[in-house]
Write a structure and sequence with these properties.
DNA Polymerase III, Chain A, domain 2; 41% strand
Length: 277
């Protein structure tokens, strides 16, 4: 039996970040449908590649109660969030025989969550297999050489640009594109006269460019993934690192991190040119 004791609020935040809801053609679609929660040394953690298997990988962590290392398989994040919404304070999760029991003061919810559940309808891989593959790829590409990107070719790539910015300032720049009913999920990061800028929206309903920070390296990239949804769960400052993976077919990719490699890390590839116009 697998066990986890954690605050309902903290677990809800962890799962919402993990889910990576993205606006695609005006419709909100979770980029991660199921996940495993691994616990060790008072830290609960998820690590997942998004549904297309290519464009993004993320790692999210939160504090949990002391306990034996465990792995909880959440077959359907949306259903788990719905169940958690009826619980407050500290919750105790136990998983056995394909079911999760959520226990809080005066309440107990049972939810089917099988280890054999598929990660997505389009793959034969289970949630557990997908999460394991994601963690291995994250360790190999992001953690192996901290602050750099380790390509599968063996190349070690330094960031071509790096800045630190407050979450509120970054969100304000992204939200500038939502004027006149626009649903923006892609943002153009570019440099102009030694300044890092962000452009959001289209010129028909209003495109706004915002100054973020000073940046000497010249580049331009379009980043998708509806990162604004994750940023809304965060406070403080985040580090933005841009990696030129053009020779590897990844364009100018973005790594967002906060609190080191054991808190929040999102690696997002540049939007394909045909989809970035």
């Amino acid at each position: 039996m697998q066990e986890l004791t954690i605050g309902a609020k903290e677990l809800t935040s962890l799962l919402k970040r993990t889910q990576r809801n993205a606006t695609i053609n005006g419709k909100v679609i979770p980029q991660v449908e199921g996940t495993t929660i691994e616990t060790s040394n008072r830290v609960a953690q998820t690590c997942n590649i998004v549904r297309d298997g290519i464009t993004s990988i993320s790692l999210f962590s939160t504090e949990c109660a002391e306990g034996e290392p465990s792995t909880i398989v959440v077959a359907n994040i949306s259903l788990m969030l719905g169940a958690l919404s009826k619980h407050k304070g500290e919750v105790r999760l136990t998983q056995k025989d394909g079911k999760i029991k959520i226990v809080s003061t005066g309440k107990q919810t049972t939810l089917i969550s099988s280890e054999s559940a598929k990660a997505f309808t389009h793959t034969k891989k289970t949630v557990k297999e997908w999460s394991k593959e994601s963690k291995n790829r994250f360790i190999g590409a992001i953690m192996k050489n901290e602050g750099k990107y380790s390509a599968s070719t063996g190349d070690i790539i330094e960031p071509c640009a790096e800045v630190q910015i407050s979450v509120s300032e970054l969100l304000d720049a992204m939200d500038s594109g939502s004027m006149n009913g626009q649903k923006v999920s892609q943002y153009k990061f570019f440099t102009e006269d030694g300044l890092l800028m962000l452009s959001a929206g289209d010129e028909i309903k209003g495109r706004t460019k915002s100054l973020l920070e000073t940046c000497e390296h010249e580049f331009s990239t379009v980043i998708g993934g509806s990162l604004e949804n994750v940023l809304r769960t965060m406070t403080g400052a985040v580090n933005l690192q841009f990696f030129d993976l053009t020779p590897l077919g990844g364009g100018i990719s973005l790594l967002i991190s906060q609190g080191g490699l054991l808190d929040t890390v999102i690696f997002q590839r540049e939007v394909a040119k045909s989809n970035a116009d």
